[in-house]
């Protein structure tokens, strides 16, 4: 077995497939879950210096935007750890990102690629080299089925510790009025609702960096949390070397994926390729999720 599975049971987890489950859960967490499962067939606290937030809401919002992580390209080795109610697994991967263009994740246990995932501005694609099949889904088609705001730029922001506006590709200090801000001495939360009624909450510390992003429905029955920690400096910018994505459905934790970055580099030449072999069979995202029994 190529994957490192620490515990094995015959029954696999079945996250709820309710249509209001955020699309991020289906495209981000599920993409990672697919890679982990197929091979084998609450937000973290704000950690900072303890300095108080004394700025006005307008100045703090502007500072959060000013401290956004900026890059042209980003590449890194990543360790992926999955923890579910009945399983724990680990894998190694290579991440490549080209700003505003694509995100590519190559899952390579012991240097052998088993899966390649590519997120572009208009589609989600997955190569399953083990089973000689692939997925190619268009965002617009997914949005039409689920009626949930979503785009590539929002996903890119999740991976790079940046605040965003649901369904939009940019954000500016003049858009503060679209957020509801609550602030205490050491942290501030910025909340915004999309056109479908989903709530997005960005929590920043006194360092003016995001420490958590959460997406949930009105009653928090379904929720995705994306926590950031272990901030280190890359080219004079603070970047979280650890990210933890947690999926909750029907108020029960369905799975947690932890991404641990190793030697990330920015603004270096990056080559990406997504050539689909002719003999590979095309399947839908829902088909592969159903076949893996993780729906």
Relevant terms:
295 residues; alpha+beta; outer membrane lipoprotein receptor (LolB), chain A; 15-stranded mixed β-sheet; 17% helix
CATH topology: outer membrane lipoprotein receptor (LolB), chain A
CATH class: Mainly Beta
CATH architecture: Clam
CATH superfamily: Lipoprotein localisation LolA/LolB/LppX
Distance between the termini: 24 Å
Largest sheet: number of strands, sense, barrel closure: 15 strands, mixed
The percent range for strand residues is: 35-45%
Please provide the count of β strands: 15
Q: What is the overall shape?
A: globular
Which sequence of SSEs, written as H and E, runs from N to C? EHHEEEEEEHHEEEEEEEEH
Briefly say what this structure is.
The relative contact order is 0.22. The protein has five helices and 15 strands.
Protein model, in words:
Helices cover 17% and strands 40% of the residues. It has five helices and 15 strands. 35% of the residues are buried. The model is unreliable at 1-26 and 36-50 (pLDDT under 50).
How would you summarize the topology of this molecule?
Blueprint: E1 4-7, H1 23-39, H2 57-66, E2 73-83, E3 88-98, E4 102-107, E5 115-120, E6 123-128, E7 133-138, H3 139-146, H4 152-159, E8 180-183, E9 187-193, E10 199-205, E11 210-216, E12 222-234, E13 237-249, E14 252-266, E15 281-283, H5 285-291
Parallel strand pairs: 7-15
Antiparallel strand pairs: 1-3, 2-3, 2-14, 3-4, 4-5, 5-6, 6-7, 8-9, 9-10, 10-11, 11-12, 12-13, 13-14
């Amino acid at each position: 077995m190529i994957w490192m599975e620490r515990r094995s049971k015959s029954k696999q987890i079945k996250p709820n497939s309710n249509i209001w489950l955020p699309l991020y859960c289906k495209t981000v967490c599920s993409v990672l879950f697919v890679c982990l499962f197929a091979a084998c067939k609450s937000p973290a606290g704000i950690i900072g210096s303890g300095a108080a937030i004394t700025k006005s809401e307008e100045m703090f919002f502007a500072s959060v935007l000013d401290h956004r992580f900026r890059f042209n390209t980003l590449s890194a080795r990543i360790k992926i750890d999955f923890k579910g109610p009945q399983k724990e697994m680990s894998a190694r991967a290579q991440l490549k990102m080209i700003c505003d263009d694509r995100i590519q994740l190559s899952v390579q246990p012991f240097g052998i690629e088993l899966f390649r995932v590519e997120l572009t501005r208009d589609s989600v694609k997955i190569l399953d080299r083990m089973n000689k099949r692939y997925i190619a889904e268009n965002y617009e088609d997914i949005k039409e089925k689920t009626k949930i705001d979503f785009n590539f730029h929002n996903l890119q922001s999740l991976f790079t510790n940046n605040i965003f506006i649901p369904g939009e590709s940019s954000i500016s200090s003049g858009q503060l009025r679209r957020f509801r801000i609550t602030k205490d001495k050491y942290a501030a939360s910025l909340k915004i609702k999309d056109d479908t009624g989903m709530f997005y909450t960005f929590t920043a510390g006194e360092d003016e960096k995001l420490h958590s992003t959460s997406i949930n429905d009105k009653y928090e029955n379904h929720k995705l949390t994306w926590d950031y920690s272990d901030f280190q400096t890359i080219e004079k910018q603070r970047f979280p070397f650890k990210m933890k994505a947690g999926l909750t459905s029907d108020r029960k934790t369905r799975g947690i994926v932890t991404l641990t970055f190793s030697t990330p580099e920015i603004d270096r030449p990056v080559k990406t390729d997504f050539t689909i072999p002719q003999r590979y069979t095309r399947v839908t995202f829902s088909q592969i999720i159903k076949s893996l029994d993780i729906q």
